[in-house]
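Side project, low priority. Logging it here so it doesn't get lost.
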Amino acid sequence: MITSSVVLIVFATISSFSRGIISVIDRYQMGYRKQGSINVNFLNNIWSAVLVTFF
């Protein structure tokens, strides 16, 4: 049986990786594609809302 500490560590690791990936995507969109920060943040929040609603 998996303990609650292991589950907590797994979810924290997943959260850290996902936040890192989002940071890389933000830098790419704002740096190379020259998109504004408002557009980038809006798209990130929409995707997050869709994923949370779905799951």
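Brief comment: The mean pLDDT is 82.
Revisit when time allows.
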